[in-house]
Amino acid sequence: MKAKAEAQPAKLDGFKWLLVVLLIVAAVAGNMFFSDLPMLYRVVGVVVLSAAAFFLFVTTEKGQKFLVMAKEARTEIRKVIWPTRQETTQTTLIVLAAVAIVALLLWLIDLLVSSAIKFLIY
């Protein structure tokens, strides 16, 4: 009995996914077809159709899982301790100094190797 209850949403999910795709295609095609209308009307149409597609998407099983994942990700981002402006500036300066030092070393190595090759060839 439980298998029948789980099989039914899968069939409906396929139909819902088809509707989502059709709504997105209608938004794109409508935007192109009505290109002579003012931009505001086309933007409103695309936004309305995209919102309808999104709300239909979240009624699917994968859409529900996506919402749960998005909420969990938001919770995890709130737990992150972001660096202060001073820490960011100091880290940036350290990285820039390290890049400059490595660039200088690579330039010196290139200069030495090219001089050695020129000495051996000529």
Question: Your description of this structure?
Answer:
This protein has 122 residues and is mostly helical. It has four helices and no strands. It has helices spanning 2-33, 39-57, 61-79, 85-121.
Could you write a compact summary of the structure shown?
The chain has 122 residues and is mainly α. The protein has helices spanning 2-33, 39-57, 61-79, 85-121.
Give the proportion of residues in helices: over 70%
Low-confidence stretches: none
Outline type: elongated
Strand content: under 5%
Chain-averaged pLDDT: 91
Care to count the β-strands? 0
What about the largest sheet?
Answer: none
Q: Helix- and strand-based class? A: mainly alpha
The N- to C-terminal Cα distance equals 88 Å
Order of helices and strands: HHHH
Radius of gyration: 29 Å
Please tally the helical runs, counting DSSP H or I stretches of 4 or more residues.
Answer: 4
Quaternary structure type: single chain
Question: What are the main properties of this structure?
Answer:
122 residues; mainly alpha
Strand and helix layout:
Layout: H1 2-33, H2 39-57, H3 61-79, H4 85-121
